[in-house]
Amino acid sequence: MSQSVVEDTSVADYRRLRAAHLNEVTAALDDHVGRLDWSREQIDRHRTARLRALLGYARERSPFHAERLRGLDPATATVADLAALPMMTKQDAQENWDAIVTTRDLDRVRAERILAEQTWFSYTPGGEQIFSSGGSSGVRGVYVWDWQFFVSAVCLAWRTQAREEQRQPSTGVSRLAVLSAGEPPHASTPLFDVPTAPGMETVVIPVGAPFDDVLAAVAAAKPTHLVAYASVIGRLARAASRGELSISPVRVSTNSEPLLDEDRQAIREAWAAPVHNLWGSTEIGVQAVGCARGEGLHIAEDEVVLERVDENGVPVAPDEPAVRTLATGLANRTFPFIRYDLGDQVTLLPDPCPCGSAFARVADIGGRRDDDFRYGSITVPASAFRYVLGTDPRISEYQVTQTAGGANILAVGDPDVGHVSAAVVAALRVQGLADAAIRIQVVDRLQRLSGSGKLRRFVPLR
Ligand SMILES: [Zn+2]
């Protein structure tokens, strides 16, 4: 059998299972839409039961969590009892992978092999999907999404929009343009390439391409619905306002980056479409989604517990500033995250939302976005580097500093410098920067900013 036949077979296998999976999503979505109308009491009752189920399962099947959950009785545990448990960092999760995962069919070595060998997205024999991401922190992680966890995450990502579609069914063809990484190992395309209304068509447009190509692809797709990174939508909206893009989306969904006021404003001016902002992570899936009727985002409290805590992991009062946000994902049985440090700070919005939902609200997630690098008239988005560096299994962390004709890259790990350098040069050429000078230096650790402990991942030339 030739290589291409092998690849075609694996892609066809994936598509068939994916179709089955999306039917599972469709079946679950009605339940999820219904939950949006739950009372506070219903949310709390459901959440407590889900938490007890998670803790009980994790204690039996995950040696890592069994150790941490000693002294807690899952049968009677409440959300408040989580405060007695230690926090879980990204480093904890990635360094204790085999002790955390709850299925004997998977370990880190096997997950890495799947990532290295798959030619397209794929499912394990157990129905899991393996994803990898540099995430906003830039530290590479490997993640497993089991069959039911994926269903939960997709429902959380889309139930708010699905309810609006049900309330106001569109006449004619609806078409969703999905602007995402477009390829493995990122979870974004499987998560967002989902029709939210009967008969909706979807088209995936990879955002790694030069912006003019993305613009042309969006124009050709004539989408009625858009989902994309916040910065990409902002750029599209500004192009539309300048008359360079003629589309009329009725709904816009943003994700993966802070939604800046300037982008929200640009979307409003270009299309006057409702905007659903999503805050998620590859670890937890989806933490919160905006309803497009009130400010901020509603926490998916039926599937995620969020704790706002101080530097020691002690919960703070709703009106007190928090240093970290810890998340416990109630739907992920195969790789449980319990009191996981998301690395974001959130502020609670105390007032009831105009939409009437009883789900708690957080303000728009702040933070700064990675800077684009400008070389004369050429703009290279940080994602061009991130796609190469953030998904290389031999790079655990990196920092990119712009130079006049390219960049200096510090990499922690054991990368094939020649290979990575060539891949970065190729990625920059796609963005219009020919023959970039890329210097890669392998280091033991990166210098973090004093105080916050955060790392400036992309340092533009001043
Ligand atoms: Zn609302």
TrEMBL record:
Alphabetized UniProt keyword annotations: Ligase
Name of the featured protein: Phenylacetate--CoA ligase family protein
Record has Ligase as a keyword: yes
Superkingdom of the organism of origin: Bacteria
Transmembrane segments: none
InterPro entries, alphabetized: ANL_N_sf, CapK_Type1_Caps_Biosynth
Organism: Antrihabitans stalagmiti
GO-annotated molecular function: ligase activity
